[in-house]
Amino acid sequence: MRSGAVAALGALLLTGCGTPILRANFDTNTLGTHPPPELPGDPVGDSFYLSSPSSGSAVVVTAPAGLSGRSLRYQHTAPQSYNRFLGFGGKEVSASSLQYWAVWNAIPQLTPNVPLDVWMGNGHFESFGTIRFLNNQVLVATDNRGGFTPVGNFTNGRVHTVVVKVDKPSGTYRISVLGGEAPVNTGTRPVLTPAALSTTRPYVYLWFGSDGVSASTYTVDNVLITEACPTDRGVGACD
Prior knowledge:
By secondary structure, the chain is mainly beta. Helices cover 5% and strands 39% of the residues.
């Protein structure tokens, strides 16, 4: 799927059904700056989170080709890995919610042997489901002890769209990565941390977990979390 098609898909996803509990784009922020944690506009109460605020250089507003408007570039830089989490937190919702969905557009630019972990979970970093981008492969976590298995591939510099579905009654999740040579889908899998399903404020996390620094970046835009499928079924993301 070409970058233009991915951008169109992202637009459909963001204008489809499902009341947002987080909506993050960075079009009103100044290029080259670290944006404030409060996200403007509706919904009220959502935010983005950097685990070490002193490491402002880890996130920078940028305007890359391929993504619409301004975006947030997350960089593999100081501080140490345990203080390098980037999170997007939804507003508080009812515990009776049946599903959580998340979707975002991104451009990966990762150097060899530097993993980027991506997951949806609760505010304590506990994961519903996790994928890893590493050496042009997409891998899915098989447990919470560091086990991963490959499910597809990604291309550096190529725009992709990530779609996460969490179904609370069945205790399952699915993650898709759209926009590569072929769609990547984890299939429906049991949630990694069932206790995390009790959260009323879901998060999306990005994490460069290896120590040191590198030129690796992951540039994100149009991050959305909802309680229902964020698009009509004609796009296919809800199937």
